[in-house]
Amino acid sequence: MTEDNIRVVLVHPTHPGNIGGVARAMKNMGLTRLVLVEPREHPAPEARWRAASAGDVLEAAQVVATIEEAVAGAQFIVGTSARERRIPWPVQDARRCGERIHSHARGGEQVAIVFGREDRGLLNEELELCNLHCHIPSHEAYPSLNLAMAVQILCYEVRMAALGTSEGTEEDAVWDTPFAPAEDMARFYQHLEETLVQIGFLDPQAPRQLMRRLKRLYNRVRLDEMELNILRGILSETQKQRR
Ligand code: SAH
């Protein structure tokens, strides 16, 4: 089922009430896979109470120690941010994100929607893991929504896309090779950085924005497993020549 391919990730949620509210928001819209990265307090009675009839989603929530574990296997990652363009990255509103999330999941891809801490949102290095950023176009006088409310809006848009008769987005075209999951992308970036340092292109003392720009490039296009293997092969050969 399409919904089973979609997971909601909460990074370091502080308030158990929000975790419960998120479980309910998800279940109301037909989503059930909740992943918690180091929640401050879990399980907690307040979460259970706020989840109401979504206690099953709450109890089934997977608890992990790092965001990397939370997005393992994900081939399309959407990071949500209250502030517009904290770092320049492809960004779309919740409606457009909902459509893309649904259409990728319907195509059999693993999708993660990542939400940040109540006080600080997502850190830059967390946002850099994402293919796309989502900003709910709130009023500039107070742009930051309550965490569970933000999750509600995203889940609603995913549901609307699922209910819609839309034929999906243009990115939908059948692809012959699966897209690379997050952990393979992480290894690729490590390999790339290592090689760029070895050939003297990247100065570790003055890295500037190089790795961020390269991540943005590759995350924007999304690499399939074949393309990733070609690039890894080029890197290995480059390292070999260097030696
Ligand atoms: N002070 C924090 C606000 C975090 S709100 C900041 O400025 O980043 C907690 C989380 O709710 C955010 O990390 C994001 O996942 C989600 N959220 C809140 N408002 C949002 C908005 N307008 N668009 C998208 N996500 C939002």
Q: What are its keywords?
A:
single chain, 243 residues, alpha/beta, Alpha/beta knot, Helicase, Ruva Protein, domain 3, 2 domains, globular, binds S-adenosyl-L-homocysteine
Note down, in words, how this protein is organized.
The protein is α/β, with parallel strands linked by helices. It has ten helices and seven strands. It folds into two domains: about 1-170, Alpha/beta knot, CATH 3.40.1280.10; about 180-240, Helicase, Ruva Protein, domain 3, CATH 1.10.8.590. About 45% of the residues lie in helices and about 10% in strands. The chain has a seven-stranded parallel β-sheet. Strand 1 (about 5-10), helix 1 (about 15-30) and strand 2 (about 35) form a beta-alpha-beta unit. Helix 1 runs parallel beside helix 2 (about 45-50) and helix 1 runs parallel beside helix 7 (about 145-165). The longest helix has 18 residues, at about 225-240. The radius of gyration is 19 Å and the shape is globular. It binds S-adenosyl-L-homocysteine. S-adenosyl-L-homocysteine binds next to helix 7.
Structural class: alpha/beta
Q: Order of strands across the biggest sheet? A: 3-2-1-6-4-7-5
Number of domains: 2
Shape: globular
Radius of gyration over C-alpha positions, nearest whole angstrom: 19 Å
Largest sheet: 7 strands, parallel
Give a short summary of the structure.
The chain contains 10 helices and 7 strands. With 243 residues, the protein is an alpha/beta fold. α1 packs parallel to α2, α1 runs parallel beside α7 and α8 packs parallel to α10.
